[in-house]
Structures are given as structure tokens and as C-alpha cells.
Amino acid sequence: MTTRNTLVAAAATDTDTPASTPSRREWVLNRRWEIVRFLSPFAVLLIWQAASAWGLIDPDILPAPSTIAHAGIELIGNGQLAEALRVSGVRAAEGLLLGGLVGVVLGAAVGLSRLVDAVVDPTMQMVRALPHLGLIPLFIVWFGIGELPKVLMVALGAAFPLYLNTTSAIRQVDPKLFETAQVLGFSFWQRLRVIVVPSATPQVLVGLRQSLALSWLTLIVAEQINADAGVGFLINNARDFLRIDVIIFGLVVYALLGIVTDAVVRVLERRALRYRS
């Protein structure tokens, strides 16, 4: 039994009731709804394609899915999409790493220390209340039109979900665990490693998923301004040539990037929380 499990056993006062095993009928019903959820987007695409073929949707306003797919194949074939994904991926990764590091460090400090909470949290809440996308003109004045303002905008969007979730997760750790650790003579770093990190990990991972979503949202806007590469640049360039099919395909790419990165975090979450099963 691990040290954390020992602490939980020592601090717990109630026992959990084992969950009942789902019946065969419930399992079949759940699988049926999963299949419906999987097929529903394809049904929307089929209806969209049919409406376009019947002339119910103006192609100058909303091209058919087949037209958008053809535009995507064109971008893949000439290599523009691969290069755009590389540039946008680097920007998103750098911004998420910077913003995530700041958010987790400040969130942990605020959650663990009342002094830091009193000094740092009011300022953080004031900055959080600002519409961060509205700061783009100010960032351009401060940092120019290169890569730095784009990365910093992504970092600003990513920092606050992790900051709030880290702070909240630490504050919600069971006080009995800290009392037990004090009785056992744990040092600060032992309490941090054995109690705080495992207890806070689930909510921090939720914050990471929120940060990822905001990172891609921020990047969409940031890459529309004075960018010469990236998925946002493809969209902006397509707007000048009235290529609505390319614009929609670029937005689909952003959406897929968000879904894929969210799925990766969910896999990491399941692996990190295997001890709960």
C-alpha cells in the first residue's frame, strides 16, 4: 500500500458503497447511444450535401461538403496545410507551455499560501476580467507584429483556466490528510508530493483541457493579424480571394486540432488516475 493510500485510510471515516454492476440492457442502451453520437455528424453532412445539390443552399455563402473536402485535398497536395500546421502547432505549444507553467505555479502558490493569495490573487482576478482578445492591439504596440505577440496571446488565454483549477484543487484537499501528515512528521515537500499533487491532479487536468480549448481559440484570432504563415494565414489569405471553401476547411482544421489535443489529455488523465480504479 502506498503512502498516500495509508494517509487516506487513516483519515477516512466513512466507507464507500460499491457501485452496482450495470445490467445487460443498460449496456446495450449505452452502446446504442454511443453509435448515435458517432453517426450524427455524418447525418448532418449528408443533409448539408443534399441541400447543396438541390440548390437550397447558395454555394457562394456555404459551399457543399464535397467542395470543402476538395479544397482540403488541394491544400494537402501542394504542401500548404502541412507547413501551416507546423507553424500553428509551434505557436500553440509555446503559448500553452508558457501560460500553463505560469498558471500552475501561481495557482499552487496561491492555494498553499494565504500571503501569496492576498498579494497575487486580486491582481490575477483583475487581469482575468479583461477580454484577452481585446488586448491584441496593445500587444502589437508592445511586442511588434512577429511571433512574440501571438505566443503571448495564447499564453494569456491558457494561463487562467490552469490557475483557477490549480488553486481550487489545492484548497479542496481534505484537511484531515494534512493533519495526518503533520502527525507523521511529513516535510513540506513530502506533503506536496504525497498529498497535494495526487489530490489536485484530476482538477488540474480539467484546467488543462480548458486551456487547450482557449489556446486554439486565441490562436485563430491571433493568426488573423499580420501573420505570414499558419492556418490562420491560410484563412486570411482565402478571405482576400473569396475562397469560402478554404476558410471553412481551415476552421474545420482548428476544430480537429482541438478535438485531437483534448482526446490526448483525456488519455493522459485516465492513465494518471489509474490508482482510483
Written account of the structure:
The protein is mostly helical. It has a single domain, classed as MetI-like (MetI-like fold), CATH 1.10.3720. 78% of the residues lie in helices and 0% in strands. Helix 4 packs antiparallel against helix 9 and helix 7 runs antiparallel to helix 9. The relative contact order is 0.12. About 3% of the residues have low confidence.
Topology of helices and strands:
Blueprint: H1 3-11, H2 24-53, H3 65-77, H4 80-112, H5 114-129, H6 136-143, H7 147-171, H8 175-183, H9 188-222, H10 231-240, H11 244-272
Write out key terms for the chains shown.
277 residues, mainly alpha, MetI-like fold, 11 helices, 0% strand, flat, membrane
In short:
The chain has 277 residues and is mainly α. Helices cover 78% and strands 0% of the residues.
CATH class: Mainly Alpha
Fraction of residues in H or I helices: over 70%
Radius of gyration in whole Å, from Cα? 24 Å
Q: What name does the CATH topology carry?
A: MetI-like fold
